[in-house]
Amino acid sequence: MDVLQKYNSLRRTMAESYSEASQQSVDKALIYAAEHMREYMRYNGTPMMDHDVAVAEIVAREIGLGRNSTIAAILHDVLRIANKERPEEVESLSREIREQFGEPVLGIIVGLCNISNIKLKVSKEQANDFRDMIVSYSQDPRVILIKLADRLEVMRELAIFPPDKRRKKSWESMNLYAPIAHKLGLYALKSELEDLALKWLEPKDFEYISRRLEETESERQTFISRFLVPIEERLHNMHGLSYHIKSRTKSVYSIWNKMRKQNVPFEGVYDIFALRIIIDCPRELEKQFCWMVYSVVSDCYTPNPKRMRDWVTIPKKNGYESLHTTVSAGEGRWVEIQIRTERMDAVAERGIAAHWRYKGVNQGAQTSEQWLSRLREALEETTHSLSQRFEAKPSTSEIFVFTPNGDIRKLPEGATVLDFAFDIHTNLGSTCTGGKVNNRAVPIREVLHNGDIVEVMTQKNQVPKADWLNFCVTSKARGRIKSFLREEQMKYARMGREELERKLKNWKINVPIDEAVAYLGKVLKVRTGREVYSMIALQKIDFISIKEILNQWISGEAEEQRRVAAAEAERKKEEQKAAEPTTSSHRSDALVIDEKINNIEYKLAKCCNPIKGDDIFGFVTISSGITIHRSDCPNAARLKENYPYRVMEARWRGNADGSFRATIAVTGADLAGLANQITEIVTREMKLNMRGLNFVSRGDGTMQGTISVEVSSATVVDMLIHAIMRIRGVQRAYRVNN
What we know:
The structure is a single chain. This protein is α+β, with helices and mostly antiparallel strands. It has six domains: 3-186, Hypothetical protein af1432 (Orthogonal Bundle), CATH 1.10.3210.10; 210-350, Beta Polymerase, domain 2 (2-Layer Sandwich), CATH 3.30.460.10; 398-471, Ubiquitin-like (UB roll) (Roll), CATH 3.10.20.30; 482-555, no CATH class; 561-652, no CATH class; 660-736, 2-Layer Sandwich (Alpha-Beta Plaits). A hairpin with a 4-residue loop joins strand 17 (689-697) and strand 18 (702-711). Helix 4 packs antiparallel against helix 5 (67-85) and helix 9 crosses helix 10 (163-183). It starts with a helix and ends with a strand.
């Protein structure tokens, strides 16, 4: 039979609502699919293409999508089967589809194939993550709608599938796809998916409820007719009101769910049906007419205020609009009444897309972007973490990866194998040495991607390392690593303290251990006593050196050595200044810096804040003239290596006089009055202008802070640091960049 004749039902659907060009494109897709799908059959021996065309009909007729979506539904198995059985042909097939049907069609098909490749696992606990992952692959919102149509067609034909497939697909439909359809406002599709799933998951319950609905049908119709009499009498008398009333029986699944949750028999479910009053009126009069009808209903029967739902004033995110009220019909019976317009009913039955179809918008035209925009808004609410998901990649910065046995894990974008290992279990992360991603051996820092299957490799002697913090991104992994490192440091600190206490006792050095450690920290240039103890425990410093340092400190020899060294350094600097020739041959081209720094074409670099007396160099910038850097500036090596031709020699004028701001960092014991002592030295002893002071307690018995002062040269900074270091309790003082 000719393929176009065989699938004429779809062609008629296209002819009813779409342009001639769209019909021709669909015919072309049918012929193309028939050529590539000829040999593939379903479980009952019927052509696989029957499924694809049936999906396309649901897409076009029941959901209301346009030409590109219909074509993608027809062709999606062409690429999916090639991906599975003939991967070498995928590239050429993709190129053909792009050339013949356009990039949007290919994009939709690729998204559908990605969802098909997900190995879904029957797990209530992970249903939310699987739903998130399904939607994360839908970069184009039409992908998830077509996937729902595909699943609906499968469920309608589930009898042809093997028994094990029936239960798995039924579970997926009920727990994964039906909730997505519900959030998109596809209520008819959602209810049918749930009923079909229940039919195979709970066949006895399904059969019982279906039979009871049939048996009570006549009684319901009689009750409804009697109930509507007063309402219809009043509605008929309303001038200009055009309406009709439909009754909707609850789905089998909804009744089953209520019986189960409320633990009641079939007879205990009172709201088995709902009545819809559907109004035909212009768009601008919709709210007015809906509330007029509501007033009629509430006059005839007493409403339950707790069951009032106003989605006319503020529609749901998925576009659903309706007034819901539940009224008492006497004898303990309650009836739900839904009041809406024809347009609202179309949206309620078929979701967002129906709104634009109802208004007569050509789905093949550019205006399809309007409903796509609305659909994106609805999809933001699809699951708890899908906000702003529909961009070139999941913009929530989440990825979904699998364990070898199919469990799904949700991680932030940029997560590594190590993050994955810690997400599974702390011990697994702590002993991780690498992994396998899609059966490929990788290091622990390998970045994971959506859909990866990850296996963790471990070794018993592996422990967390400090450098792991450089590439771990999850708070769980970083927290566990830091916790381990703290515990290790505390362990070594206890060991080091115990060893030092024994040594001080043996050496008969009678000073408090905390003071001794504070002094050792100054000499060793570490911030905390804990670090000193760790150095001792890890044998990074020997006890002979420690004894020598402490003896010099107690005898005062160390203080004298510092004073002599400071004086010698000052003397050499003065000699060097005096000996500087004004026209030195080797420095004749050097830039001379003096107190007029702010009035000429060079300025001090903010990255290192040079002060008179610092060893400096000039760097020619593109737009800011010459910048003066310290020779030990953090950027010096890079500038000299990358731009040697822009580096120039510079020096301070010997008799230059100016004011510079310097910042000194101080770390010490958290003692009362320590900050006051530092202030005294700055203002009274050194007679310097203080421009800033900030000290904070660190909670471990130490404090740290900074002092900003105005100085005339780097020599003054050295003298100030030397004076601060003499204060008892100060562990470390050093100059920092402003």
